[in-house]
Structures are given as C-alpha cells and as structure tokens.
Specification:
This protein is an alpha/beta fold. Helices cover 35% and strands 17% of the residues. It has helices at 9-19, 41-50, 52-55, 64-84, 106-112, 142-146, 158-174, 223-229, 240-251; strands at residues 31-35, 91-96, 99-100, 117-124, 130-137, 181-182, 186-190, 195-203. A four-stranded mixed β-sheet has the order 1-4-2-3, with helices on one face. Strands 5, 6, 7 and 8 form a four-stranded mixed β-sheet that branches. A hairpin with a 4-residue loop joins strand 7 (186-190) and strand 8 (195-203). The chain is elongated and about 80 Å long. 20% of the residues are buried.
C-alpha cells in the first residue's frame, strides 16, 4: 500500500509547475446552445425559461466539469416542463461538442477545447397524455362538483389539474363552507394507455353563518358609525367575497391602518 509523504523544497516547486497546465480546468468554458422547438408555442417558451444552460450562459459561466453537470441537470428540468404540459413519454438528449452528455470522455475533450463549444438539446415531445378518470372523493356539494371543470379526455396539463383544486375550494367557501378542505390532486400515470387518472379528496364541512361581528382598535372613529357602515352582519351566510368587499369598503374610508379579519371557532 502506498504511503503518503510530504514534498519539500525543490520537489514542492517541481510538483506545482507540473500541475500548472491542468489549472485551466477551472477556467470558464464558453458555449453556445441550440434548443430544439416542439411546435407548441407555450411549451417552447416554458422550455426556454426552464433551461439553465440558456439563462445562466452569460450570468454564471462555469468550467468544463460544472458545465457537464449543468447540462445533465437541464435534461431533468426540461423533462419536468414537458411533463407539466402532458408530454409524459417525452425524451430529452443533450450533446456537448458532438458528444453525449454522459460520455466519460467528454470532460477531457472540454479540457482540451480552445473555442466555445456547441450544446445541442434534442427534444422528442411524444404524444400529449389525456385524463382518463377525474374524481372528487368525499361528500361534495353540487357547486363544488360544478367548479371542477375537468373531464375525461382533456389534456393532462399540470396547471389545469392544479387549478381545479383551487376552483373547487373557492366554490365551496363561497357557498358557506368556511372550513372546506380540498387536498392536492393524486395522479396515477398509465404510460401504456397514455392517460392520467386524477382524484381529489374533499372535506366540504358544514355550511356556516357569520357569528358576532366585532369592532375593535378604534381611537378617533365612532363604533356606531363603523357598525352602520358594515356590509356584513351576524347570521349572514359565510362568503369570503362579501367579507373582502366589506373590508375594502372600510379601508376606503382612509382612517384605518388595517380592516377586517375572520376567525373560526
């Protein structure tokens, strides 16, 4: 087994000089990027915005080894963007200076490069997956189901699936279900059928009415004036939009730093 030893005097200087040529490995490696287009305008924009190879090209130059890492990471980031638009069978390949990003000889080739290297990102988007099953699990009132606005056969676009969660929750709260909960969607991918099954667990909770409406923190404003101005009243069906409208109405008076908040008991 080789034993460690300490270099001294002339040997130390000779070793430093011998290592000098390899110091270039830490120098920034300039490069150009060619990102293939899919033909879908919104998707192409998302791919460009998600690419660190493009966004960091001038702002954060890196050496050869870090450039390879950046390219590998970019492949994953681009796949995420493709998935979010329903392309779950997509393929992304990255080549640097004509070599695959996983080519073990690539780092050495970059070390020897004396000019900017080209990076080519090829994308095969594949088909757009569709929704097969869309379910709201739990006792969901009609207004909640009507707000889903997703149906089997729709494109499996992540933004649409997530937006449906918010729509259902908003509809339930507007209909008086102040404590309603809608969990994040659970998605099951079936690559062979090119479909996505999505379900939402919903706990609507009871419909509630407003309880006592408190008025506090007043210094120079008469409480009776504020109460007469209020647009919400005890016994009224809970509606977050009406509460917000009341808050804005009080805020527009120009005499309050903050106005209105609601709590549950």
């Amino acid at each position: 087994m080789a034993r460690p030893h300490t270099l001294r005097h002339g040997a130390l200087l000779a070793a430093a000089l011998a290592a000098a040529p390899s110091a270039r490995g830490a120098d920034p490696q300039p490069y150009t990027v060619e990102l293939a287009k899919t033909g879908e305008t919104a998707l192409d924009q998302a791919l460009r915005e998600g690419s660190n190879l493009l966004s960091l090209q001038k702002e954060a130059p890196v050496g050869p080894f870090a450039l390879v890492t950046r390219a590998r990471d970019d492949a994953g980031r681009l796949m995420t963007a493709l998935n979010s638009y329903g392309h779950y069978a997509a393929k992304v390949s990255v080549r640097i200076a004509g070599r695959d990003v996983d080519d073990p000889a690539l780092p050495a080739a970059l070390e020897a490069a004396t000019a900017p290297v080209s990076i080519d990102v090829a994308i095969q988007p594949g088909p757009v997956f569709r929704l097969r099953r869309v379910a709201l699990d739990g006792a969901v009132p009609p207004e909640g189901r009507a707000a889903l606005k997703l149906a089997p056969g729709d494109p499996a676009v992540a933004a649409d699936v997530l937006a449906a969660q918010g729509r259902v929750l908003e509809a339930l709260r507007k209909s008086g279900h102040a404590l309603a909960k809608v969990d994040a969607p659970v998605a099951m991918l079936d690559p062979s059928a090119q479909v996505l099954d999505v379900s939402y667990n919903v706990d609507a909770g009871p419909q509630v009415n407003l309880g006592p409406v408190g008025v506090g923190g007043l210094v120079r404003v008469d409480q009776g004036f504020v109460r007469r101005r209020l647009l919400v009243h005890p016994g009224q069906r809970f509606d977050p939009d009406e509460i917000e409208r009341a808050r804005q109405d009080l805020a527009q008076l120009g005499v309050f730093a903050t106005a209105c908040r609601w709590t549950s008991t």
